[in-house]
Write a structure and sequence with these properties.
binds magnesium ion; GMP Synthetase, Chain A, domain 3; seven-stranded mixed β-sheet; ACAS_N; 630 residues; AMP-bd_C; binds adenosine-5'-triphosphate; eight-stranded mixed β-sheet; alpha/beta; ligase; Luciferase, domain 3; Propion_PrpE
Length: 630
């Protein structure tokens, strides 16, 4: 079937399309209605059906693939490696579920998971799914303040954590941060379940804190049946990365998510039972939820859980994992590939990568240089995919297993089945034609797997995302807050976030367009462009670049600045030419690798850089200040 036919069916008759896809998972009780769209923008999928994510990810495979690897937990931080078969994974999940029940966790209760990338984190997520508790995984790199605000939002009965994480060989004690966060929070969890890795001392709070190993022993032979949940009950809460401001608590369902993941694992990721999937993200992000934990397991694949840096002990570590575990599909982010690109290329050639069939990249714009470099080095197709915490699975990409359409450099691809993607002209409210820039919107209802609401705040969900209507159908449209363009072949290009659009003397430009142009200069390694207030023009572009080879003399900088201005002049025109180009050694990014343009812009305009709880390295802000001053 051509992708066009596949896609069109999903749009013309979503109920028939998704009814068919729903056969990919096990249902305990069949659904009576595929889609209930009677209260837009709230969509309900597979109404009346009961199912369970843990059953579909684990139990379902135990009969036929019980001894096959399911979870491969590797840590180059503690030099440990352990493979769990589907049967062993089931045993561990049941033990964890039994502990949770013994601590009073029941259906609909929230469990906050603040953990490093260790097997127990996966057990905890799946255990929640098994008993119908709602997990809220908080990225282990966050400190007390960020954690406290998420504790207050989710109001967990139980928090699952560990003594410590480890990053680049440095122990990061979690327990102290967690205790501080609980002190800061209004809400107090009844219990804290702690995995002791023996990395850092822990002070246990009597009556509240519980040791995981000890309680695992108590429940070693436990039997905990799957709790069958109505498809639209909540499975988890996950906060967006906070790149543009206060994170939003995305709430997802059970049945729609399971079906969406199962379909994407086949249609987009070509996942085959028995294969091995290696996603280098973190369980604290949506990519980790969908494509480390649930997606691969639902597809009957082994999934690699990796704790460590991509360049330790050396930049060959990922490729040694690919060789050893015969990884078939890999998923990462452009930011990680840029890190590898700075390392000696021989390390990649050392390993047998013949099992690997494709590398998927998402999370931020994939620039052409990075994409070409990694594609050449690996000799496999690179598949860019664009989506959000809110969507749970790709919105734009190429569905390789439906039709192997060519990728276009710089474009994540075409709208995926189920997504009625449109571009909206913000000024006129009209839909854009080909080659016309606009805001990327999706006409409701959103397909299965997408967010149901913002946890505990339906109003904020509607007011944040659903403020526009389709001029064609009058239906509410979901805004992605990204800005894009579609070419004559229907391929989309993401031009940046709507926050990042700048207005230079009446011309609207995406900062990403200017960045892409600057990246084509041979000596530019990374770049951030922001719009800065200007009395004459309204706004002007200002660029911060990390050069590949830094010439820190005044003359060297001036030459690079002039060259970059010329590149932009030639490719975009003088409206996009940055008023200044500053050289820095580091750019401010979130812990998930996204550029914090709003903070850079604030500093340029002499304002407060805003909420910095999600920043990776605060010293990057000082570099911006120093560059502006010097
Ligand atoms: P917040 O919504 O809290 O500001 P965030 O948008 O960074 O945070 P995520 O949901 O993790 O949180 O990121 C989704 C965003 O990442 C997209 O809206 C888009 O801006 C960007 N993005 C993701 N994948 C791609 C891609 N392949 N190409 C371009 N941009 C991408
Ligand atoms: Mg966002």
């Amino acid at each position: 079937m051509s992708f066009a036919t596949f896609y069109q069916r999903s749009i013309d008759d979503p109920s028939a399309f998704w009814r068919e896809q729903a056969r990919r998972i096990d249902w305990h009780h069949p659904f009576s209605q595929v889609l209930d769209d009677s209260r837009p923008p709230f969509a309900k999928w597979f109404v009346g059906g009961t199912t369970n994510l843990c059953h579909n990810a684990v139990d379902r495979w135990v009969g036929t693939r019980g001894e096959q690897p399911a979870l491969i937990a590797i840590s180059t931080e503690t030099n440990t490696e352990k493979t769990y078969s589907f049967r062993e994974l089931q045993d561990e999940v049941i033990r964890t579920a039994a502990i949770m029940q013994s601590l009073g966790v029941g259906r609909g209760d929230r469990v906050l998971i603040y953990m490093p990338m260790i097997a127990e984190a996966t057990f905890a997520m799946l255990a929640c799914a098994r008993i119908g508790a709602i997990h809220s995984v908080v990225f282990g790199g966050f400190a007390s303040n960020s954690l406290a605000s998420r504790i207050d939002d989710a109001q967990p009965v139980l928090i699952v954590s560990a003594d410590a994480g480890s990053r680049g060989g440095k122990v990061v004690p979690y327990k102290g941060l967690l205790d501080d966060a609980i002190k800061l929070a209004q809400h107090k969890p009844a219990h804290v379940l702690l995995v002791d890795r023996g990395l850092a001392p822990m002070e246990m709070v009597a009556g509240r804190d519980v040791d995981y190993a000890e309680h695992r022993r108590l429940h070693i032979d436990a039997k905990v049946p799957v709790v069958w949940l109505e498809s639209n009950e909540a499975s988890y809460i996950l906060y967006t990365s906070g790149t543009t401001g206060k994170p939003k608590g995305v709430q997802r369902d059970v049945g729609g998510y399971a079906v969406a993941l199962a379909t994407s694992m086949d249609a987009i990721f070509c996942g085959k039972p028995g294969g091995t999937y290696f996603c280098t993200s973190d369980i604290g992000w949506v990519v980790g939820h969908s494509y480390i934990v649930y997606g691969p397991l639902i597809a009957g694949m082994a999934t690699v859980l990796y704790e460590g840096l991509p360049i330790r002990p050396d930049a060959g570590i990922w490729w040694s994992i690919v060789e050893k575990y015969k990884v078939t599909r890999m998923f990462s982010a452009p930011t990680a590939i840029r890190v590898l690109k700075k390392q000696p290329p021989e390390l990649m050639k050392k390993y047998d990568l013949s099992s690997l069939q494709a590398l998927y990249l998402a999370g931020e714009p994939l620039d052409e240089t990075t994409s070409s470099w990694i594609s050449e080095a690996l000799g496999v197709p690179i598949v860019d995919n664009y989506w959000q915490t809110e969507s749970g699975w790709p919105i734009l990409t190429i569905a390789k297993n439906i039709e192997d359409k060519p990728c276009k450099l710089g474009s994540p691809g075409v709208p995926m089945y189920g997504y009625k993607v449109r571009l909206l002209n913000e000024a006129t409210g009209a839909l854009c034609g080909a080659n016309e820039k606009g805001v990327v919107v999706i006409e409701g209802p959103l397909p299965p797997g997408c967010m149901q609401t913002i946890y505990g705040d339906d109003r904020r969900f509607v007011d944040t995302y659903w403020t526009t209507q389709s001029p064609e159908s009058g239906r509410p449209m979901y805004s992605t807050f990204d800005w894009g363009i579609r070419d004559d072949d229907g391929y989309y290009f993401i031009l940046g976030r709507t926050d990042d659009v700048i207005n230079v003397a009446g011309h609207r430009l995406g900062t990403r367009e200017i960045e892409e142009s600057i990246s084509s200069h041979p000596n530019v390694s990374e770049v951030a462009v922001v719009g800065v207030e200007d009395k004459l023009k309204g706004q002007v572009a200002v660029a911060f670049v990390i050069p590949k080879v830094a010439d820190n003399t005044t003359k060297g900088r001036a030459t690079l600045e002039a060259e970059i201005m010329r590149v932009v002049d030639k490719q975009i025109g003088s409206v996009g030419r940055p008023a200044r180009v500053y050289v820095v050694g580091l750019l401010p990014k979130t812990r998930s690798g996204k550029l914090l343009r709003r903070s850079i812009q604030a500093i340029c305009e002499g304002r407060d850089p805003g909420d910095l709880t999600t920043i990776e390295d605060p010293s990057s802000l000082q570099q911006i200040k120093d560059a502006l001053r010097g």
